[in-house]
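[User] At your convenience, examine this fold.
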Amino acid sequence: MPDYIVAKANTGEGVEQLACDDIGGVLFPRTKLVIGADGVNDGDVSAANPLPVTNARQPALVGTWAYAAGVSGTVVVPAGGRVVGIAATSTVGGTITINAGATITVPANTGFSASPQAQLVAPTIVFSGTSSYFVEYVS
């Protein structure tokens, strides 16, 4: 089965071939994306004109960047501070606890890192038995 269907031209004369994809004997129309508001053609989507995408659930990472670093201890990220990175190492085995929740174990002679991508806001992070820690945030 060909990967197209035939339709009459808008003028009523001649025919046009419309691209399709044959999936299990059913033709699904193929389409091209065009960028622009209603009634505006800002061009076909391509490598040179990519589809603009925003993530409404991802907070804007703008503001004052800061970090906390140390060996073991407690980090209190200020109100409104959004954590973008957490890292720790331990030579003897340690733990990380965020907002008095579940404990994350850092085995001996290893490291731990996480990128909460600003979804973790103003936490208290406790590092116990760690050799080093680093918390990066923006507020």
